[in-house]
Each structure stands twice: as C-alpha cells, then as structure tokens.
C-alpha cells in the first residue's frame, strides 16, 4: 500500500504533505496517515505546516467509499474525518495550511480547522459542495463554517454549494492570504518564523478558549 502522507522535521517545523497522485481524497488510509503524522508533530513539539500536492490541497472524502455501499467503511471514514477536525481545532501547537490548490468539501473543512491559511493565486477553487452531490453537510462542518466564514457567505457556501475563487475565498474567510502558486510553501515557512516568536503555551490556552463552541 503506497504512502499518502509524508512527514519531515526541520528547523523546528513539522511539514505534513498529502499526495495521493490525484485529488488528495480523505480515504480511511489518508486519514489514518494524517493522524500518525500529527502524532509525530505533537511529540516533536513543533509548529506544523500541512500542505497538499501541486494544484490540489484536497478534494474531500473518498466518494468511492460512499458508492461502495459498505456502511462500516463509510462510518469509519466519516468518524475519522470528524475526529480529525476536532484534533486540528484543539491541536496544542499552531498549524499553518499551505493550500497549494483546490480545497473542496472535507478539504475545505480541514482548511478551516487550521490556524492560518495561505492559498495559491490563480484558478484555485474552494467549495463545500456536498448538496450538489446529494450529501447533507455534517454537523461538525456546519459548526466550523459558522465560526470561520463571515455571515453573508455562509448560506451560499453551505446551502448553495458555491465555488469560491481566490478573491472570494479571501473575503469569505477560507483563506488569510494568497501568494503565487510556487511561493505557498515559502510563505508558510515565513509565517512559522513569525509564530515562533509567540508564547506557544499562551497560544494553546487562548485558542482553546476561542474555539470552545466548536469543541463542545
């Protein structure tokens, strides 16, 4: 079975990279490998960068699992996805998303669960498109959107499955900044250098207070 997530540690930065060669879908395997990488990052006590592959952060849950009709596997995938969101929201160290391209469905929700989001300029799209493919948006994702997306864009994002371009994503709150596609990882590294000047214990406590509504 091929490795979908790679972990590296350098200069007090844990870099977690997702790459399945396609849409970086959150299959059971991808989710389990992300958990393992986050375990390593937490043990290292380092700031984290989560990155995708070129032009793709993540296309969301693995639709082939839904189509399989395997209810046990579907439940496992959805549970792991919800638990991943909770872990990212409550992670004791800062997490930067190097959003190297499109973020769709669960890919969008993972993006929103990180502390700072840097996107790629160009044709990147951001969408919670569940209702367009016959799925009801999970409660945990609704709570994340309520906290991270500004009010006037929430209904469009959740109820209308709108695909946001980069400028719209910046306005709505999917992204904090956008840079040239080949500079996303470099920008994320520069952001980490700023973050390392903070008191990370204070960061942890303050983040948990801020996100208490999403974690209860």
Using DSSP, what is the number of strands? 9
Total number of helices: 10
Distance between the termini: 36 Å
- How much strand content do the residues show? 15-25%
- Helicity range of the residues? 40-55%
Strand order of the largest sheet: 1-2-3-5-7-9
Explain how this protein is built.
With 216 residues, this protein is an alpha/beta fold. Helices cover 47% and strands 19% of the residues. The protein contains ten helices and nine strands. It has helices at 28-44, 63-68, 71-90, 106-112, 139-148, 151-158, 166-172, 184-195, 200-210, 212-215, and strands spanning 5-10, 13-18, 47-51, 55-58, 95-99, 101-104, 116-120, 126-127, 177-179. The strands form two sheets. Strands 1-2-3-5-7-9 form a six-stranded mixed beta sheet, sandwiched between helices. It is globular and about 45 Å long. The termini are far apart. The mean pLDDT is 95.
Key traits:
3-stranded parallel sheet; 47% helix; alpha/beta; 10 helices; globular; 6-stranded mixed sheet; single chain; 9 strands; 216 residues
Secondary structure topology:
Blueprint: E1 5-10, E2 13-18, H1 28-44, E3 47-51, E4 55-58, H2 63-68, H3 71-90, E5 95-99, E6 101-104, H4 106-112, E7 116-120, E8 126-127, H5 139-148, H6 151-158, H7 166-172, E9 177-179, H8 184-195, H9 200-210, H10 212-215
Parallel strand pairs: 2-3, 3-5, 4-6, 5-7, 6-8, 7-9
Antiparallel strand pairs: 1-2
Helix pairs in contact: 1-3
Question: What is the gist of this entry?
Answer:
With 216 residues, this protein is an alpha/beta fold. Helices cover 47% and strands 19% of the residues.
